[in-house]
Structure to design on (150 residues):
């Protein structure tokens, strides 16, 4: 629609209401006397001296607010969660320990095989003057199958 053909509406203008500033009364500057005059107390000490002063009321602590009751179910759920986390952590440590122990035993087996294999190799391939084992003298062998006698 064209702006010339739109009907005019009445416009209401709202003005905010100002809030008056708070009234501040200055506090009295002079000393203020208490409502009642405290009583003066005198005490005679065992050595005969007299101590005089005002009696002071004991300071009363503020009353302790009662703690809200904790639900028994909430306590059980919290303890169950702590227990579950402890069991999970223990199982994680146990599986890690078993894996490390398995790897250690495997290393020991490999080490034993290497040492034993080295000992066997030294025995078989050794070049010492004494040769162990069985010596077969083929020239003096008696072969019974073909009836050859040496």
């Amino acid at each position: 629609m064209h702006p010339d053909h739109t009907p005019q509406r009445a416009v209401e203008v709202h003005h905010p209401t100002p809030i008056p500033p708070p009234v501040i009364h200055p506090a009295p500057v002079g000393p203020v006397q208490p409502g009642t005059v405290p009583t003066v107390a005198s005490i005679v000490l065992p050595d005969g001296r007299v101590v005089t002063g005002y009696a002071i009321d004991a300071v009363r602590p503020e009353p302790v607010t009662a703690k809200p009751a904790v639900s028994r179910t909430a306590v059980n759920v919290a303890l169950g969660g702590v227990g579950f986390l402890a069991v999970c952590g223990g199982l994680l440590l146990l599986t890690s320990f078993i894996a490390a122990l398995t790897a250690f035993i495997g290393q020991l087996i490999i080490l034993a095989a290497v040492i034993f294999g080295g000992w066997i190799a030294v025995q078989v391939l050794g070049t010492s003057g004494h040769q162990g084992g069985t010596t077969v003298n083929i020239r003096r062998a008696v072969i019974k199958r073909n009836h050859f006698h040496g």
